[in-house]
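**Fold tokens**
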Amino acid sequence: MGVTIKDVAEECNVSPSTVSRVIAGNPRISQETKEKVQAAIKKLNYHPNIIARSLANKATKVIGLILPREVDNLFKNPFFIQVMTGISSYAQKYGYYIMYTFCKTEEEEEKSIKDYINSNLVDGIILTVARSKDNCIKYLQEINFPFVVIGRPEDTKNVLWVDNDNFQAMYNVVNKLFLNGHTEIAFIGASGDLNVTKDRLNGYIQAHKVHGIEINEQIIMEVEDFKEDLGYKAMKEILKNDVPTAVVTTDDLLAFGARSYLTDKNVDGILMVGFNNTPLVEYQKPALTSVDINARKVGYYASKLLIDKLENKLKETHYIIDTNLVERW
């Protein structure tokens, strides 16, 4: 009987799957391990099965999509549905399928990514959020696995990404409110570790600086997630400190919750602005003014970047998708 992959694994004290990955040219394996396995292969005169190798290296034509939501919460926020629609519409054109994973925490996201990759289930990954010190991005970079981020990564070097200019979008909203006579503008944002929230808050702050208006820290509220009930609670806290003439939020759901509190307390005259321009805004009474971020287009171009990478046709490293304020005041 000839030398087997198990013999090679025992020779260099690694698992047979590690030997397989070295043979397949998997970039996740460290250089030290590669050299150790290659030395054992040479020493034992091992010849890999070429047919088995070709099967192992066959593309799956599947893209893994990591969603930072429980399923129930996902369908309460149309933003992710719109992004998923855009991703699927481009992928379908080129014969790719989408595999979705719903995760409650960043740790769950990391585990799902590793499971996808180690099981050879997907050719590439799409991350739908970008965090400060993002461990998922760091891991995918370390193993050189194809991925795209929806959102601006903290370090954009060697990362494919799609986003809006969230700083400018929020700056434009607050600037317009100031020009319309508002001087006390509250801010409600979610998930302060997300770069999208940071960028929008910075746009809010910069608009104050440009207009020479002092920032009232007591009417800036950050909550844990993009949920209506948290917008409700944030509005309650803001009114304990001051009564603004307008409120800007980083998501329509937060605006819905904030407005619900104002309605419950019979507070009139506070202008509310949301973000994402989800279909639900038109059913609000009155309809909500919101920034349209073209979420479907964001998903479409994220899918395009990744598939271009997988098909060796990559020309761009990122796309900035336009936004526009849809006024309903």
Notes: The two ends are 80 Å apart (CA to CA).
